[in-house]
User: Fold this.
Amino acid sequence: GQNIDQPTEMTATEGAIVQINCTYQTSGFNGLFWYQQHAGEAPTFLSYNVLDGLEEKGRFSSFLSRSKGYSYLLLKELQMKDSASYLCAVRDIAGNTPLVFGKGTRLSVIA
Amino acid sequence: EAGVVQSPRYKIIEKKQPVAFWCNPISGHNTLYWYRQNLGQGPELLIRYENEEAVDDSQLPKDRFSAERLKGVDSTLKIQPAELGDSAVYLCASSSSGGYNEQFFGPGTRLTVL
Assistant:
């Protein structure tokens, strides 16, 4: 079976750092994606991890541990526009196979 | 480069009526996906096309849902008849072959069935 868990909601303060965790159990693994989705809009790609370790891209970083079935998305210097849902998604085999998405974490950034 | 285009953006219908959604993927993307996203949930795959062939439709409720991708470009997803539980956002995504196959999503069609 496939199962992806993330917290439902988080709140953080403007300018702060927030870490959104994702754990997964899938029959196979060939990459983990993080997407950002503002209300009423399409998911947009943030990051991709296939090997263990940290990938940094500006204010956003994503970490993966395949042995633990664990990833996190780290957002630094939070801005109000970062208020959105953050979706963790796993591809369990190679190629153009569909992603299995978690339910998403709704992040609220407050002043 | 134009993104994935979907229409309509919003649709309100009464139950038992038919409805159709249209998707135009990014030019050159061979793979097209239809997802359904319920409120507070992540997207769930309905069907995946490789060019004009449906290669994964195991999650498509075939008694009422149908899809086509003639000529391997645009795609249409149809529901007939619609039920109350079909209210959701229907997302279309596309990806190219090779690489890590990032999926690009369209803005979605928000369907409300009354």
